[in-house]
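INFO  loader      accepted 1 record
INFO  loader      residues=443
INFO  predictor   begin
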Amino acid sequence: MDQTEKLILEAIDQHRDEIIEFARDIYDHGELGYKEFNTAEKFIKKMKELGLRTETGLAITGTKAYLNEEKKDTASLALLGELDALRIPEHAHANPETDAAHCCGHHAQMAGIFGAALALTVPEIAKKLDGQVVFFATPAEEYGEIGFKNELRAQGKIKYGGGKCELIRIGAFDDIDLNLAHHTTIGNEVVIRKGSGNGFVSKVIRYKGKAAHAAGSPHLGVNALNAAALGLTALQYQRETFQDKDTVRVHPIMTKGGDLVNVVPNEAIIETLVRANNTKAILDASEKTDRAFLAGAVAVGAKVEIETMPGYLPTIPVDAPEELVEAAKLAAGDKYNVNVVDATSTPSGGSTDVGDVQHLQPVFTFNTGGAVGSGLHSVDFDVNDEELAYIVTAKIFALTAYRLLKGGAVAAKKLVDDYKPIFTKQEYIDFMESMISKKTGGA
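INFO  predictor   done
INFO  writer      dumping tokens
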């Protein structure tokens, strides 16, 4: 540990109560994707108090705060945090105004970035960073409320449902060379995992039938709910055709099943994501999903419209840089274990828009525990070790930033030079646009 690293640890420890208070505030006031106005304002206030220039309103609620802008040409490192929560109204810490709860652990990311900013803006530390640091609060990582996001699209406020996807499109990553990201995990250790995760497309399926008296003259109606039920059943018969190696996941919800119990349902609406760990499998599962829902309409004489939008690209397995691993060990100290895991043979079924950024520039992710429950996104999720969840997270962010950017930012520049992007920005946008489709069928 050198003197600057000692100062980083001391600075974060000195602000321990402030970091935890910030985390608890966000935890108790969750907001949903593209609606995180209060959460963003809290972050903006903290960044301005630290004297940082901020850019706000990026992809509606996204915010960037800049440190060492004069050194941006050497290297530009973004510390990524996510603003949004999940709709889990039964959770003990759900926001009663939004029904949102941070069962995803995004509040821990935001606390970690705030804590890192508290340390890295100390003048004696900042001058040791030979590069720019961007504290980046990003919106809408949890891909829910597809109908709402499509409304935003229709209004011209966004083009894509995922926050980082939209930020890429509008150029908010153009001044960044590499990124550091975090995620909460269940347990009591720090995990640095090399592995892939699913990408997906999103769908909204709208069945149109014909209203009639449900008891007096049902023969005069066309039951959209029945069409939807048949479509869902047909989808189940596709599942044996999905290969295990592709980790396909199709998980629909019904957001509308009619208007009144004594009226034959005139409209039924389903939302679903179609996931897999490679693009070919996503497209295959997407086509089979469409086929199933079209069949439901044909069977009862209804009409159906299937709107498909790009979701996220699969995440790419990358080796963690030595600077991140050593920073994690230093931050964890003797109290917590640091587990470096190669999970390339067992892809995750989940998805994140970090994968989209990875297709253009390097992103390195670490996980900290401090949470309990049956899993992320669960009603019994809770934080039981605030030191690990928030303080260690802040220390890893800050120490890794220092190690990457010290000494002429040699380590950061090597990671960027060695990285082989899959897409240019324009190629990425062209690919996303190619995934947009609308199909109609039925009677």
